[in-house]
């Protein structure tokens, strides 16, 4: 049965502001859940569990990255097939054990188990929040929508990282810092279950519009192939996303150890751990909308190069000011890249398989956590922390070259 003009949902941020704003808030709580680990888990591994090797310490990031990547893919497929809201709610339910495992885990293996639950939850909740915002925003403000989404998530990561570092310095590493996770979990689940509404009607409406994107009908295997390697724009975005999260894994897992080796206190490490995602989060309020006006390609390439500079600066210094400068540059570069990559995927993919394309992109992007943890851990154990930092900086610079040479502009101007 065809939808009448009266029944047809409207696309755009203004027309969907209440639901869009609610989803921004939900994503802030999603970000907060991962932020509770950002500043203190590497220290917790060394102090409470006597985990010494860098590769072993970074195992929690590798596990998180693999499980999140796979659930990203699942979220896209299930969201296209059964609806977005059930997937969002399921993600919050799966997160329920995480803060309690982090508070009371008797061995490091239980921390790994917590990160399995966290990775699955993050994949389902964050991916679905992204897809729902793309559904609501329509084609004209896609970059701005992604900027607002990623701002909320990563600013919350920054606040949670700072707060847990402060609480740990004041009260101890466990259990007090992880009380925040219980609050984030309760708030996110309540909003998702009772206030968030399904967005499938918006997808169906956009699918019949002339701005719907490429290839109106693709199967699951075709979407995977097109997004991973066949389409030069989608595959260029996918590899950039993977390398971006490879260096984010470095920042998450090794930077706190770099800062500690320089003699910084736990509260200073917590502050530094918050600067990078904080700058990243706030700057996306500008960069997301900027990509709607200037285009996607050169923001992505330039952002990867700026990230490489920020990582290299961190490797060159041993002072709080130097580390803070590197964190600011890394945050700015990531802000140029993160929402713009999602907007580029939305530019190219047709609404009927857009959720699946976002899932494939986020599958490879978050595999970057695992690759980053393995590469950085092996290099750090073999050649030292500084060598690992420089290797990741070089990979990030090369990723920008791939975008510059292979990707074309995806923004379709009216």
Write a short abstract of this structure.
This protein is mostly helical and 414 residues long. The chain has helices at residues 17-38, 41-47, 54-57, 59-82, 84-94, 98-104, 108-137, 142-171, 179-194, 200-207, 220-230, 232-253, 255-261, 266-294, 297-316, 320-348, 351-383, 385-406.
Describe the 3D structure:
This protein has 18 helices and no strands. The chain has 414 residues and is mostly helical. Helix 4 (59-82) packs parallel to helix 7 (108-137). It has helices at 17-38, 41-47, 54-57, 59-82, 84-94, 98-104, 108-137, 142-171, 179-194, 200-207, 220-230, 232-253, 255-261, 266-294, 297-316, 320-348, 351-383, 385-406.
Helices and strands in order:
Blueprint: H1 17-38, H2 41-47, H3 54-57, H4 59-82, H5 84-94, H6 98-104, H7 108-137, H8 142-171, H9 179-194, H10 200-207, H11 220-230, H12 232-253, H13 255-261, H14 266-294, H15 297-316, H16 320-348, H17 351-383, H18 385-406
Helix pairs in contact: 1-7, 1-8, 1-9, 4-5, 4-7, 4-17, 5-7, 5-9, 6-7, 6-9, 7-8, 7-17, 8-14, 8-16, 11-12, 11-17, 12-15, 12-16, 12-17, 12-18, 13-14, 14-16, 15-16, 15-18, 17-18
Keywords: Cell membrane, Membrane, Transmembrane, Transmembrane helix, Transport
GO molecular function, one term: transmembrane transporter activity
Membrane topology: Multi-pass membrane protein
